[in-house]
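#struct-queue
[09:14] JT: dropping the first one here, sequence first, then the structure tokens:
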Amino acid sequence: MQKLYVNDMRFYRTVIGITVPIALQGLITTGVNMMDNIMVGKVGETQLAAVALANQFISIFHIFCMGIGMGASVLVSRYYGMKDKDSLKKTVAIMLRLCLVMSTIFCVTTLLIPEQIMRIYTEEENIIREGIKYLEWSVLTYFLLGLSLTTTIVLRNVKQVRLPLYTSIGAFFVNIMANYMFIFGKWGAPRMEVAGAALGTLIARIFEFGVICGYLLFKDREIDFRIKHLFAPVGVLWKEYIRISIPVLVSDGILALGNNSVAMVIGRLGGSFVAANSVTMTTQQLSSTMIQGFAQSGAIVTGYTLGEGDREKAHRQGYAFMGIGIVFGILSAMIILLISNPMINAYNLLPETQEIARQLMYSISIIVVFQATNSIMTKGVLRGGGDTKMLMLADNIFLWVASIPLGIIAGLVLHLPAFWIYFCLKIDQVLKAFWCVIRLNSGKWIKKIKSSEELEEQ
């Protein structure tokens, strides 16, 4: 195995320059979710559980959009390194078309069967009733979230990382003010509770969409994409997009369904477990924002390097990213242990729920070390190398063969303590970390990507 670092300060400066704005944006987004939970939690545990479970369905859409955006980013970063602007525009056009189709599907589904959606996660009627309110107010959010999220990913891949950060800061304050107004009925607004949380998020999404998508369509010069390009023919680039990007979408989509199967298991462990998991998930997200930033940085930097044609350099950098994953995984575990009690005490939870939350925190502090390493590899370096088909298989085999069956046995059959239930539900993160070491060492993850010009010449 090669060294887990490189003697190249320019590499680390580039990585930090990309990672920090992405991580800060993730931190702000997590902060918004945390404030949502805290405000709704002040209303009651039922409302907190309802919002958490309704957001599980919305998170399926979020992961699908991440798949669409990250799939496109594999091509965008490579074409950007090749300085192929024509292929860049066509890739963005395909991405936005897919996003619009996906948004329409989720919008219609939520409108038609909100009650059936909630029953996927729980059988408690009071939680279902509150969750339906949240979903009905979230319908338009799909289009706004989908387009702004995928556009943000593309802008990051052409070194436009500050605008999404500044936009998230603005959306954070918009969301807090709107939530405060409509959840609690302040400043002359009606008291809407759960529906108010959804409305506050919708208002923040409108702001985010206007700035991000407005910049892409009217201001950006790196891609130079305009509304007319959305309807322009993309030629044979569809083939390369399908070959490289669709496995990412399929992988993330099946992964989303798998994660929702995990949520279904958690939902059937009772409202206390659901509420405790909501608290711990927010804490995990706060502690691992840098990891997500490094993951996206890994995909971008790897794409640039391979776009310049330097395979050996990309391989060395891959090991350096693995070293970063190990270091920041340990740091994240320490942060979780330090902030776990203050985070739990910030919510209006029953003693039983607090105890479950503490056990989950301990479990997460172990899992996050392995999750950090494999996230930077699977969502970063290996994906940036174009190894999307193998990642599609690995992501889902570990989830469906290990995590879900073991989680069901631990939680619904053996009724083990919360610590072990959660550990079993997340065992795929441990297994993938070891698999990533083997895959990186093999060098088979570096794939050739063709431009639209090369495809047309065939």
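[09:21] JT: and here's the second one, same format:
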Amino acid sequence: MEILLEEFYKQDIQTPQYIERRYFLEEETSYQVNGITQSGKSYLIKHTLLAHKKNSYLYIDCNDLRIDVENLNKILTRFCNQNDIKIVALDNYKETIALPKVKQLLIASVEHFDYPELETIKLYPLDYEGFLAFEQRYDESALNHFFQLGGLPAMHRVSAQERPRFIQKSFHYALSEISFDIFTLSANLMTQKVSAFMLYERLKATRKISKDKLYTNLETLLAQGYLHQLPKYEHTKAIKKLYLCDISIKNAFSTQKHFSRLFENMVYLEMLKKEFELYYDEDIDFYLPSQNRVVLCMPFGNQEALFKKIEKIEGFLITHGVKQVEVVTMTNESSLQHPFVHVEMIPFSVWALTEGEDDVEEPQNTKVSFGDLLS
């Protein structure tokens, strides 16, 4: 095992075409970096290590089949002391590996571990702002490219014809057989109200599976961030809506074309990464009670469609004291003067870059009065 550690210690690590992200690992602070496969955990850790002298760190990929965990636990701390190693990075970390006693420890895993001594960074796939940093262009084609590639950083290095298979292989390798089947099935159910029992009924038609196995694997997918659920406001027992971890999953696992669902999933992920308290309700895509705000997804909506939508949900808006309704579109931009709530249509490319900010400039388009539309 010591020979293998020597090999790890001498190896050169690389991060070709690394693009800075908003996450930063400070010196002398130990971290665990959590995130789904292909979210950029390894690149972030390797990039951090490359800022230090080569003989000061040790990088270990814990998926290496040559590792004998029992022997590694016996000698790792001693090996670090002998070589004056200050930083140890354990990529694809497994809980059976004992944490070495070093100045700075960096671990990366899909799973989150209860280690109070480590600060946690939750790494998501790229949001639209992060995607633009990789894209290095800000014209109208950037949003269309985002729809094609999604938020997995590695997709920028994969040719167009290889992208579906790259995603399929990456997730097939990362997930258990049952979890992968659930994940594949979920690609056709994105943004829909989906119960665990519904998944069980559909899956048992193609494979042998128990309810317990399905529930356990579904909980794992949710806990690790491969799938997300959105509850209904003030209805804890209502069926939750299902969302995918990245919009690239849809086209990689399904031939069904549902642009409106893809768009809604994209809007959801932008808010998820800001850790907002989110719910859905009837005819309402997203309700943020702590902000008195509703977000609607209408990729190709116009003022007439918006008026009909607001009229339909007006009771909810008044009852819950909603102050602002944001209608996210592909390109349309306008405002609607309503007696009780501020309503505006915002293109996704603008909304995503200002989401969560307090001082968002109002659209410059002519405002349309709610009363004018009623007349």
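[09:30] RK: nice, looked through the second one.
[09:31] RK: Confidence is low (pLDDT under 50) at residues 359-366.
[09:31] JT: good to know. Residues 37 and 170 are 7 Å apart (CA to CA).
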